[in-house]
Design goal:
Elements lengths: L1 E5 L3 H9 L5 E3 L2 H5 L5 H11 L3 E5 L5 H13 L4 E6 L2 H12 L3 E5 L4 H10 L3 E3 L2 H6 L4 H15 L4 E4 L5 H10 L3 E4 L1 H8 L2 H18 L6
Parallel strand pairs: 1-2, 1-8, 2-3, 3-4, 4-5, 5-6, 6-7, 7-8
Helix pairs in contact: 4-5, 6-8
The chain binds SN-glycerol-3-phosphate.
């Protein structure tokens, strides 16, 4: 399973990349806007830190604008994944960009019909937004299950990246479903790593060790 941090915060990106096992960084216009920097400059900075994939979402309204923007963003990254927000223009632009040999993602996919079109257009990934689907009283996980079954039946290799992950339970549920990839905020990622009993146990081990070794600290 591929694992990404969904952030444009350079401090969080550095901290995540130091771990060494993450697959890269996903972004979207809202995430980049939070950093209040020129987007293409920020993208270059992110790519300097990240050895893996860097995901950039186009903002153009027409297919021609999206294709131009996608090519520019892709030229700034070692392993770009270009995101398109689901629309007719995006289907056209995504298809053209995938023909260039650049990896693509269709985002804001909320129906099985959209998921079929995205896969047919050549999307390497689609990103269902678990949290936003749950927000409107439906089930993000049920949607992922439906798309996964549909892709299996049709033989599409398009990967499903679970996004809009709001907490650790979303991560566990998506993992049980066997998603191909996940992206989450730095905060959710950090929450996954901790547990009060782990903290308590670590403290106890440290105290016992210190009591044994005393001041010398020699093993
Ligand atoms: O990856 C999608 C994510 O950035 C959206 O998350 O919490 O705004 O629905 P959220």
């Amino acid at each position: 399973m591929e694992l990404y941090l969904d952030t444009g915060n350079l401090e969080h990106i550095r901290s995540g990349m130091e771990l060494g096992f993450l697959d890269g960084i996903t972004t979207n216009p809202s995430i980049l806007a939070k950093e209040k920097k020129a987007p293409m400059e920020l993208l270059k900075e992110i790519d300097r830190i990240v050895p893996g994939k860097v995901w950039y979402q186009v903002t153009g309204r027409t297919a021609a604008d999206m294709i131009r923007e996608a090519r520019e963003a892709a030229s700034l990254c070692k392993r770009p994944v270009i995101k398109f927000p689901m629309s007719m223009d995006s289907l056209q632009a995504l298809h053209a960009i995938s023909k260039d040999g650049i990896e693509t993602n269709m985002t804001l996919v909320y129906t099985p019909g959209q998921a079929v079109l995205a896969a047919k257009a050549g999307a390497v990934y689609i990103s269902p937004y678990l949290g936003r689907i749950d927000d409107v009283g439906a089930s993000g996980l049920a949607f992922v299950r439906e798309v996964r079954e549909m892709y299996r039946t049709l033989g599409f290799e398009t990967k499903i990246i679970a996004a809009s992950i709001r907490g650790t339970q979303h991560v566990v549920d998506a993992a049980k479903l066997g998603v191909d990839a996940m992206t989450m905020s730095y905060e959710v990622f950090r929450d996954l790593a901790v547990h009060p009993l782990t903290e308590k146990g670590s403290r106890q081990f440290a105290d016992d060790w210190e009591a044994l070794l005393g001041e010398s600290g020699t093993i």
